[in-house]
Amino acid sequence: MRWQEQTGPGRGVRLHVRRVVDPPAPPVLLLHGLGVGGVVFQAFARRLLPFLAAVAPDLRGHGQSDAPSSGYTPPDYALDLAELIGDAEGLTPPLPVVGHSLGALVALELARLRPELVSWLVLLDPPLDPELPNPEIESVYRLRHAPSGELEAYLLERNPGGGKLLADMLAQLFRAASDAAFEAMLAGRPFEAPAVGQPTLVIQADPRKGGILGDAAARAFVERLPNGRLLKIPGAPHAVHASHPVEVAEAILEFGGYSSGAASSR
Questions:
Q1: Which of 191, 7, 142 is nearest to 88 (CA)?
Q2: pTM of the prediction?
Q3: Is the pLDDT of residue 264 over 70?
Q4: Which DSSP category does 259 fall into?
Q5: What's the gap between Cα 83 and its chain centre?
């Protein structure tokens, strides 16, 4: 698997983008959560091959993308992506879009604002439950400016299977992210999710393990969708694609109409 790094236009910003270029496959847009970047999908993307090739942008204020002083609502991010899709070579819409956490909200807004760009959606533990605030956002926001090592220790405790290298990488990404992005997310709860018409799979993590979408809220949201489906992965933390990559990749491929079981062999 070979990645290419490039930049493309957003709405008044430049976005950094990682995309799989070898082996060639139809593109799938992977949207990361708050404070990190497209690089977090680097290992997971292999599970989608040979059926789908990841295109993983850094949202504005994240990773290596521009960080303006404002414009950090889900619609702002979505309009950036609409510009990117219209400009990038090989991104012929409509595209499947997979989003985790904040990325799931952005995916929903892209499908609402520019429905012609999105073929189907997979939402990974979206923050749509007013009864389940995400304490990790507040903790990371506070620890980003704490003495060296405190954020890394917190992340290692939250992601014990990832090891120190993952904790260090996440800490570096969180510290580099825009304060305005965190502040907008903290101010924006609860989120009103649009009932989009595209086929939508919601993959719910386990609230007992740090998932931020409860059972009642998950069912209520999916019931509002004209073409929605819900999959819960017991025991999965919020970063469900990192903890259970085989199950998540197989669910994505099956939902998209590709061969089931391929992800487990990669």
A1: 7
A2: 0.94
A3: no
A4: P
A5: 18
